[in-house]
Amino acid sequence: MTVVSVSMPDELLDRIDQFADEHGYTGRSEVVREASRNLLGEFENRRLEDRKLMGIVTVLFDYETTSVEERMMQLRHEHEGLVESNFHNHVGDHYCMELFVIEGTLDEISTFVGKIRATRDTLTVDYSVTPVDDFNPLAETS
User: Fold this and answer.
1) Which helix (H) or strand (E) holds 125?
2) At 139, is the pLDDT very low, low, confident or very high (cuts 50, 70, 90)?
């Protein structure tokens, strides 16, 4: 197995070590391998391919980190055909949250989420997607 060197903040490494201990992993390498497999497999869901999807993406970052806010605005404009709406809220005393409502294909959404995740200094990036190509809110339910 190839050994890889990865840079990360001390607090993230501490969280990985604690997670490994609490969940019975043999060490941080096992946690990082599993997390990598999960991340890479996230958008490989065949059920979502070739379908129109809607999604919600939330991004949390420190209020003082204006570069993240600038990057979020850049991405909104770069993907204006995908982003249906965008909200910016202050959370607590030190944090900002960007919320994107998006609509597009799996490839478009995965590219957008990937660019957000690659943005330096984001604290969390969460998202969910739902197919809307066969969505019928007027259909009767039993």
Assistant:
1) strand 122-131
2) low
Q: Which CATH superfamily is domain 47-131 in?
A: ACT-like. Chain A, domain 2 (3.30.70.1150)
Residue 19 CA to residue 92 CA, distance in Å, equals: 26
Angle, helices 66-78 vs 106-117, to 10°: value is 160
- Give the type of residue at 139: A
Reported residue count of the chain is 142
- Taking the CA atoms of 107, 49, 131 and 96 in sequence, report the sign of the dihedral they define: negative
Domain range summary for the chain, segments of one domain joined by +: 10-41, 47-131
pLDDT digit string, tens, across residues 43-73: 666 677 788 899 999 999 998 888 999 999 9
b/e sequence 25-46, b meaning 16+ C-beta within 10 Å:
beeeeebbeeeeeeeeeebeee
Please state the φ and ψ torsions of residue 73, each to the nearest 5 degrees.
-65, -40
pTM over 0.85: no
Q: What is the DSSP letter of 46?
A: G
